[in-house]
Amino acid sequence: MLIAVIGVNHRTAPLEVREKLAFPEWGIKDWLCKLLSYPGIEGCAIVSTCNRTEIYIAPLELDTGMSSVWSFLSEKSGLDISEIKNYTFCHTLYDAIRHLFRVVSGLDSMILGETQILGQVKKAYELALAAQSTNVVLNTLFQQAITTGKRVRTETGIDQNPVSIPYAAVELAKQSLGSLQGRSVLVVGAGEMSELTVVHLVANGVTSVIVSNRSYDRAVQLAEKFNGSAVKFDRLFEYMNKADIVISSTAAQHYVIKYADMKQVTERRAGKTITMIDIAVPRDIDPAVRQLPGVNLYDVDHLQNVVDANLAERRQAAVQAEGIIEEELNEFMCWLSTRYVVPTISALKKLGEEIKQRELQRAFNRLGDLTERERKVIGSLANSIVNQLLHHPVIKLKQAALTPEGHLYIEIAQNIFNLNVEGKPLQRKKKVAACSATGWDKGITAVAADSRPSE
């Protein structure tokens, strides 16, 4: 049984193409059932996120299986196969397995080491199980991939260092104040960057959120998301007395928080530390504010330094992760190759035994009456000849099975000896029948009507 993946991601295709090739979670089971009905597909799974769509298959023959996936994607998206091929990548065998292990470890993500993909791959596997579209090879592949992703994060800590501005803001707040448990934050400006930063602050223990914005309605909307309160912009400095952290991110072209205003605030705070994080460009906070007692002021450059340093650490962790992936990959290949070669060796030995028995019977018929001893001697001779003829081919097949080219040697042996090696055609028929019972005809129309990616 072989393995292949055909996919599209944020590096190979623009959003308008990825949208057409995406599979909403609620429709994946039906689409998997449909894919199983295509020629050569013995097992399949679909990983579909906002940044990627990847179809994993276990075909008996690569060309047939991959052609089926191209046709399947064309039917689903309405795009020509030639157009789809322009935006997709294709990996087979060893490279397909390594790709999945790298994906689930966060090494192929837009943000190096991100953790969300691990859960997304796990969910994709669960959906494939529910659709009965997997087989033992894909089951083992995805199980080991998920284990690999967990191991990479545990042993390398690749996801521990923030590599975005909002994450970096939280990191600096921690360095300035220590624990963020029970702290309060005042947000100046109600844009997306402010919101993302508050999300991470709240996740790290901040309990009180105050939002001030020139548009008071917008301030109210953002405050409600965090069970916080909104204040009018002209009362900004009054409420700054209550904050441990200030996040400022407005579109103003001048300083919103000036030295003179902050000087009065610090006098009222009587030396109590306040951490101010200026995410805006141009800056919202007068740099001179940094000179005031009890003020720790950080701007975008400080945040970028944290991002760069942490990204460097993630890249270093990624090197270690690649080593872990190779270990897991070799372990899986040993399992897969051994599983793949055993039926071939069994068929080869069966063929030798059939030829031996047939020729022995023919010889005994021609020789007439033989003593029991003579029969044993002739039988032993035939047995020895067959064993010696098959000994080296069997040894070489076992050795070749542990290499990335093992499947080629096995296929050659099957062809040379015309071996009857059983595949899984009956399993495939059963799976397609089971999928038919899930209501493919009813569900597919709805899926085709909405091909937007599920976040």
From TrEMBL:
**Residues with site note (Important for activity):** H99
Domain Glutamyl-tRNA reductase N-terminal positions = 6-156
The record's section on Pfam families has: GlutR_dimer, GlutR_N, Shikimate_DH
Its EC number(s): 1.2.1.70
Q: Where does NADP(+) bind?
A: G189, A190, G191, E192, M193, S194
GO MF annotation, one: glutamyl-tRNA reductase activity
Ranges for the Tetrapyrrole biosynthesis glutamyl-tRNA reductase dimerisation domain? 320-419
Keywords of this protein's UniProt record, alphabetized?
Answer: NADP, Oxidoreductase, Porphyrin biosynthesis
Q: Catalytic activity annotated for this protein?
A: (S)-4-amino-5-oxopentanoate + tRNA(Glu) + NADP(+) = L-glutamyl-tRNA(Glu) + NADPH + H(+)
Q: Name one GO biological process term.
A: protoporphyrinogen IX biosynthetic process from glutamate
Quote the SUPFAM superfamilies the UniProt record gives.
Glutamyl tRNA-reductase catalytic, N-terminal domain (SSF69742), Glutamyl tRNA-reductase dimerization domain (SSF69075), NAD(P)-binding Rossmann-fold domains (SSF51735)
Broadest EC class assigned to this enzyme: oxidoreductase
Q: Which residues form the active site?
A: C50
Pathway(s) annotated for this protein in UniProt: Porphyrin-containing compound metabolism; protoporphyrin-IX biosynthesis; 5-aminolevulinate from L-glutamyl-tRNA(Glu): step 1/2
Q: What are the binding positions for substrate in this chain?
A: T49, C50, N51, R52, S109, E114, T115, Q116, Q120
Q: Where is the Quinate/shikimate 5-dehydrogenase/glutamyl-tRNA reductase domain?
A: 171-306
Other remarks on record?
During catalysis, the active site Cys acts as a nucleophile attacking the alpha-carbonyl group of tRNA-bound glutamate with the formation of a thioester intermediate between enzyme and glutamate, and the concomitant release of tRNA(Glu). The thioester intermediate is finally reduced by direct hydride transfer from NADPH, to form the product GSA.
Q: What is known of its domains?
A: Possesses an unusual extended V-shaped dimeric structure with each monomer consisting of three distinct domains arranged along a curved 'spinal' alpha-helix. The N-terminal catalytic domain specifically recognizes the glutamate moiety of the substrate. The second domain is the NADPH-binding domain, and the third C-terminal domain is responsible for dimerization.
Q: How does it assemble?
A: Homodimer.
- Into which family does the record put it? Belongs to the glutamyl-tRNA reductase family.
Query: What is the recorded function of this protein according to its Swiss-Prot or TrEMBL entry?
Result: Catalyzes the NADPH-dependent reduction of glutamyl-tRNA(Glu) to glutamate 1-semialdehyde (GSA).
| Protein's name in the database | Glutamyl-tRNA reductase
The encoding gene is hemA
